[in-house]
Amino acid sequence: MAWTKWSYMDHWVTETPQGPQPPSFNRDHMDRYVKQLSALGFRGFDTFFFYLPILAGLYGSVKAFEEYLQDNGFDKITGIFSAYPYATEYTAPHVSETHDRIVADCQATIRAVEGLSVENFIVMPSTTYFQVEPVTDEKIKIMADLWNRVGRLTLEHGMRTTCHFEFWGAIRTREQLDLFFSYTDPQYVYFFCDTAQHTIAGVDPIQMFRDYRDRCTGFHFKDTHTVDTHEAYRTPPDPELMAPQVTRWFHEMGTDGGLVDFPALIREIVTSGYDGWLTVEHDKAELDGGSYAEATCVAKWYIDNVLAEAQALADQGAAR
Amino acid sequence: MKDTLRWAYALNQWNIRMDVFVRHEDQRRALKTCSALGFHHVELAAGTGRWDNLGRPEVIELNHGGPAGFLDFLHGCSVHGVSSMYWDPGQPAEEEGWAFRSTRNRDDHAAIVESAKPFADFLAAIGTEQLVVRPAGSAWLQPPLGADDVKTIGEVWNAVGKVAAAAGVGVALHYDCLSAVHSADEVGQLLAATDPALVGFALDTAELTIGGIDPVAFYAGHADRVTHVHLKDTRYADTGEEYRMPGAETTMLRGGAGRRIERWFFELGTEGGLVDVKAFVATLREHDYPGWVVVESDHGGNPAELAMLNSWYLQHELGVAKS
Amino acid sequence: MTRAADERRIKWSYMDHWRSNGPAGPIDQWHSHRSMSSFLKQIKAVGFDAMDTFDFRLWQMYGDYGGPAKYQEMVQDHGLERIVNIFHAADYDVRNYAPHLPETHENILEDFRVTMGHWSSIELDNIIVMPATLYYDMEPITEDKLKITAELWNKVGEITAGYGVRLTCHHEFFCGIQSEPDIETFYSYTDPEYVSLFVDTAQHCIASVDPVALYRRHAHRVSGFHFKDTRNIATGDDHRHRPDSEIMAPTTGKWFYEMGTPNGLVDFTAMMTAVRDNEYQGWITVEHDKANRYGGDYAESTAVARWHAVNVLEKIYR
């Protein structure tokens, strides 16, 4: 049976009379966006913590927004993404003095989705690499301590804290990832596999999933054409948009030159017995004249055709 | 522009989402666009985070090494300098722990003055004259102004004005159509509550018009206090206290509710524009207005097209020669 | 813009490729009078003196504006001097319209007799043509074919000269006459009185022809320029892809960029120096067709190109 638990990570940009804007531009644009995703068959919706107050403003409450999703064929809001990509004196996961503040922020986000059944509390476990370096065992331990603390808290509210690693974050190599996970409690801190980010950092996302299957609670299915071989990850103040060698890191599934082997990944997922959500993401799809709507359609075509076939083969194998 | 008036162009129309207008080559293209159209000074707008890399002194420093490096960046595009920078202390910034601050709250005043200092110092270092500020938050987010509120707001701006003046930078209170200080009367009270030697007024032609205040008459009545101008047009005025709608930034200014007007601000010379731009500029000339006139398109569509149309209006409708 | 226009030896024209966003999607400036007016304002505001356009706009000029002269009045109402050059974008077809096939020549000559009549109501400097069919319709390129082609354009040039307009050849990288030896052979058979060269800096560069050297060799018969840039040289059979190499070439999705683009292959400083050395007087046309590809923006490209003209090229020669 085809995988039905596909969710969509909310990076969309659409045309408005004030130029290209996120659909939260106004209620009408947001409604249209939900309908567009629904038409493609997405059933889960992931969004950023900073959109929650905006959604509450547009719909009356986050719960009311979720009901609107449900009226349009969605199951629910599946994940909330929270992050501190940029270290400040107030918030920096590698600085333990800032942890109380970060935990307090997380509590505010938890309150914003109280009563819903969000599954993943997705976090960037570190800020930009250049703000943390030199990356030491001790700093990785400090970051692990923070997310152990947050993980215990979110679990009390039904959400698993799950770590999403950026290629430009302080925890990026396989050694750093392993060390970080060794310092975190499997009961409280989970793994979120972003296929493109790991690939850019030179880490095999499929092997990561294989090795951390028991702690994996989700995926961002997105592609890249480039492995960072120029230490672009150290570019201050931002490698994702400002790396001198690369203007666009991310692509939707199914583009020529894509480096991620998605059919192999879906086979691995099926074989492993994983039954959670799979999330489509393609942030900054508008670069080079791209369109979020088209990128999302092309990615869903890829799911319904290429991945469905790979999954069917894997299902047959599993049945045998 | 070759004129007795000093013209600049606001870069805010390029920076319309959090993850755009970040790469230096994109910024260079915008600067060259302004330069080619005769605008050799630009207005910056404060922001937050690594992607708003023209928005805070410390982030500009990370990008350009400091004031001199930043000026080199501008000069490389034949832009001579920065006329002004817009800053809203009520807009939470990551670098300040996302603190919510209100100029109406005396407890926040010390922090507001403190956070103004790096801006004033940076602007002084790059030869910029004006820190343009949002004097009060949106009306829909707060109770109606009480008897003491305007005075309280005035106090913090006097204090900021003092700090900025020490660095050699002026402070100008920018009127916007959502502001809690809304009517002509309230604006007059605020000006009266501030020290003319330290605090001026930033007159935005479209914002005043939306707010129901005639910019020409207002300027004529307050010429001695107007130290900064934003020149843009609008096709609409707030006809029913729309600024008090909950979420007015979205419900009013993005057409989320009410009359569903999704775009309010337009280029000079737009059809159906409500601002009498020629009369306004003529009034500036009559009073030998000494400050910057910043042409601004706000968030209206294609930035380069709007800059070109604004430049055309200056050259062909206002008779300003392009330098 | 401080000196009077007649003191300058170079004036700048804009070739009218343009796209903007309308409420119903992307439009070009011919969409409506309002969009045309907006386009002309923008071109004028950024400092162009005039514009060039395409032959195929003739019917819109008649239908929407009352003919070329009336349309030009609108151009002039926006402060631009006039229409300088017309690009005659013919639909080459080996059955009836192919310069290297003599049996099609009478049809082509008749086309120009009619065309020049249409344009006689305005003063033009050049009528610009791609002098050969698409490469794949002409290959193999032989001296004989080049000679036949030259003979046709000599005759066409005579027709256009009768209207006071120069016939000038613009060599696309994908047309039959694009390599350096073929270009040289072609001009050796054409009459300088009737056939001029129009240097498109990017097209020559893509075809591995140095536009500066080409210009220096033929400066006496160069009647105009398209100043535009490219980041790629055609390789393999890029130049012979059906139906249109500019769009279909496998190596490159976007061939053209505005002057001043990073990694541009055209040396505009050397080009302008050559223009100065040859004391060229007249029009230089800025072009950047398909600027909107990959998220590009015509308005911004045009402003950036103009910035380059003012801040780099006019420092060399103006």
From TrEMBL, chain A:
Annotated Xylose isomerase-like TIM barrel domain ranges read 35-285
**Top-level taxonomic group:** Bacteria
One short Pfam name that applies is AP_endonuc_2
Q: Which residues form a coiled coil?
A: none
**Official protein name in the record:** Xylose isomerase-like TIM barrel domain-containing protein
Species of provenance: Actinoallomurus iriomotensis
UniProtKB/TrEMBL annotation, chain B:
Q: Record's Pfam families?
A: AP_endonuc_2
- Gene3D superfamilies per the UniProt record, alphabetical: Divalent-metal-dependent TIM barrel enzymes
Name the InterPro entries on file.
IolE/XylAMocC-like, Xyl_isomerase-like_sf, Xyl_isomerase-like_TIM-brl
Which ranges carry the Xylose isomerase-like TIM barrel domain?
34-304
Q: What is this protein called?
A: Xylose isomerase-like TIM barrel domain-containing protein
Organism, as annotated:
Actinoallomurus iriomotensis
